[in-house]
Amino acid sequence: MSTDPSPSPDTGYFEALYQSAPFGYLITDHEDLILRVNGTLLAWGGYEEHQLVGQPFRNLLTPGSQLLYETRHRPVLGLQGTANEMSLQLVTAAGPTLPVLINAASVLDERGNLSEVRIGVLDASSRVSYEQELRAAQRTAESLSARVAILQGASAAFATSDTEALIAQILASILEDALVAAAVCVALVNSAGELEVVAGTNPLDVLIREESNRVGNAVLQLERPVVVGRSDEDRKQYPLVTSALREARLHCVAVFPIMNDATPIGVTAAFFGRERSFTSSETEMVLSVARQASQGLTRMRAQDQLAYAALHDQLTGLANRAFVRESIALAVSSSANTFRPVSVMFIDLDGFKAVNDQLGHREGDAVLREVAKRLSASVRAADFVGRYGGDEFVVICHDTGERESAAIAARIHREIRLPYPEAEGFAVSASIGIAVHEASHEPTTVDGLIGAADAAMYESKRLGRDRTTQVLL
Amino acid sequence: MASSAVDVVARNNVTIHGSGRPIVFAHGFGCSQDMWRRVAPHFAVDHQVVLFDHVGAGKSDVTAYRPGKYDSLEGYASDVVEIVEQLDLTDVVLVGHSVGGIIGMLAANREPSRFAALILVGPSPRYVDTDDYTGGFSQVDIDGLLDVLDANYFGWSETMAPVMMGAAEQPELSDELNESFCRTDPTIARHFARVTFLSDNRPDLDDVTVPTLVVQSRDDVIAPVAVGEYVAKHVAGSKLVVLPVTGHCAHLSAPDQVVTAIRDFLS
């Protein structure tokens, strides 16, 4: 405004320049205590000069800003001599915070020690609030797109996985990344109704499995996540889990249910090295990924069930005719490869028709189920038992010659002869034909073995039933 | 063994000066091993001075950063144990500032046989207040810190999204954003801030078996005297020294006093 180029302005002029500069200006001592502060900053903050002089500058900052100022800006200033464009939040006397940008420069005394710090303060409210909105919008968009990416990635990965273990493994690794967890494991309810870890890492000792499962079962029952950490209550309720966490240098485990529609089919446990809480959107994300996995898992179980049904007899649960023939084919080729004998036993019940005709099919079925049980109990663990049709059964004994197969047949005769509570007063026994194939003999076929065993069985019937006839092939 | 030793040294930018009893300096949140430049040289005359950067800070290898591993101070502590093991140091004096002290304490708790003294400068085992503990901050304050962190690292950048999405893969960007001192990777700093200020390591104080000195500033908003007293009370047999200095970084503002306190304790 002034056209007078005053060659030597008086101190009053500089004082005015200082006091009403278009930015805040203050000087602190080596310990951050305010020595001087200009009018602009006092006006912005609504402070009186005497309120600030002698106070540490950091006391003018919000707690969050104090943390950064003390841990980062002061060190940078101390090491570098300047610290520029620091974005901080000032507390005003009236309460609201004022976003500012700060440049600071240190002044050293003749011995090189810090004597004072000069700090320029710019009002950055419009810019900072704009940036803040931008960042908030960006964060929301990012977390949404990250979540969409996680869900899409999960759904693609689950769709192309063809085993239960692989799906569970993918679920574990997706959640490990998404939750920034130290470890994640997946446990599913097995056919015995118990939780069984199928994928991922469980850093807790296996010896405490019982109590771990107690946490898992609580989650299955509640159908919502449970976090076990270091609280007294957790220590009381799950003493082994909490001490195992400590042993593994972990602070908490968050256990989420894996729901298939309304049915919990398992849990996934995420382990953390510090206390963690989860926002509802994080929890929702975990539950959705788990839900996707459950679809894959139940699809896999359905496929397994279909495959099982195609190969098993519904009444007895034994292998069905197709499976028996497939297994004999495998046994023949393995016998050829290992040069070991194989025995195929054909079993036809004696006296069963009478049970069926006189007591009815219900009792007949019960006898068949009991026979299946007794057959399975009479053979060795490696032997294979199937129902060939009606009251005909087949047993395949790998690596078994004449003598051993005869011994197994003798056990079967004994077991089958025992009375049946479902058919009191009826005598049931087994006529058995065994085809023993020695590897050194001519190669044989499935039909060759079954046919020979069947013919030998008829020979047993002809000779008076309840006996075994062997043929060598 | 030899190749993995090289890895740890490069990963944590380990630098070694002098010879004698090993003294390892662990920096805190917000800076790098630069923090020790006014204290460490005093020890190089009669000690083997070992300095390093936590992964994400200084000249550490940011590609070694794994979010799951560094989601707790234990991840940082395992790095310290690895450094001490790779250099095969015993009778180690560990000097840690702020969260660096807590990390050093966790390392000493894991391998007490290698450590002979712990010096914790401005330690705080928990920042967030609870019903029966005063750390000095609330969850809202920590959220505020994350906001100002963002404003500092990303405020002037027009390419915020790529930086936030993958600064680790674009070192030229993070270089540009950082000062020459106290370099930190913005993405990792954000995570380190959460891990530092939201951890609760009070139970670990009980496990310390190594002789411990707590160096406390008389006036420190980050780690107030009451917190230093709490640490000294819960670390069995520890000693507390309150220096007549203000601020959280006594080793920068009053290095001589910090050096004297450490030497007095060690002698």
TrEMBL record, chain A:
<feature type="domain" description="PAC">
    <location>
        <begin position="84"/>
        <end position="136"/>
    </location>
</feature>
<feature type="domain" description="GGDEF">
    <location>
        <begin position="340"/>
        <end position="473"/>
    </location>
</feature>
<dbReference type="InterPro" id="IPR000014">
    <property type="entry name" value="PAS"/>
</dbReference>
<dbReference type="InterPro" id="IPR003018">
    <property type="entry name" value="GAF"/>
</dbReference>
<dbReference type="InterPro" id="IPR029787">
    <property type="entry name" value="Nucleotide_cyclase"/>
</dbReference>
<protein>
    <submittedName>
        <fullName>PAS domain S-box-containing protein/diguanylate cyclase (GGDEF)-like protein</fullName>
    </submittedName>
</protein>
<dbReference type="Pfam" id="PF00990">
    <property type="entry name" value="GGDEF"/>
</dbReference>
<dbReference type="Pfam" id="PF13426">
    <property type="entry name" value="PAS_9"/>
</dbReference>
<keyword id="KW-0175">Coiled coil</keyword>
<dbReference type="InterPro" id="IPR029016">
    <property type="entry name" value="GAF-like_dom_sf"/>
</dbReference>
<dbReference type="InterPro" id="IPR043128">
    <property type="entry name" value="Rev_trsase/Diguanyl_cyclase"/>
</dbReference>
<dbReference type="InterPro" id="IPR052155">
    <property type="entry name" value="Biofilm_reg_signaling"/>
</dbReference>
<dbReference type="InterPro" id="IPR035965">
    <property type="entry name" value="PAS-like_dom_sf"/>
</dbReference>
<dbReference type="InterPro" id="IPR000700">
    <property type="entry name" value="PAS-assoc_C"/>
</dbReference>
<feature type="coiled-coil region">
    <location>
        <begin position="127"/>
        <end position="154"/>
    </location>
</feature>
<dbReference type="InterPro" id="IPR000160">
    <property type="entry name" value="GGDEF_dom"/>
</dbReference>
<dbReference type="Pfam" id="PF13185">
    <property type="entry name" value="GAF_2"/>
</dbReference>
Automatic annotation (TrEMBL), chain B:
<dbReference type="Pfam" id="PF00561">
    <property type="entry name" value="Abhydrolase_1"/>
</dbReference>
<dbReference type="GO" id="GO:0003824">
    <property type="term" value="F:catalytic activity"/>
</dbReference>
<comment type="similarity">
    <text>Belongs to the AB hydrolase superfamily.</text>
</comment>
<protein>
    <submittedName>
        <fullName>Sigma-B regulation protein RsbQ</fullName>
    </submittedName>
</protein>
<dbReference type="InterPro" id="IPR000073">
    <property type="entry name" value="AB_hydrolase_1"/>
</dbReference>
<dbReference type="InterPro" id="IPR029058">
    <property type="entry name" value="AB_hydrolase_fold"/>
</dbReference>
<feature type="domain" description="AB hydrolase-1">
    <location>
        <begin position="22"/>
        <end position="254"/>
    </location>
</feature>
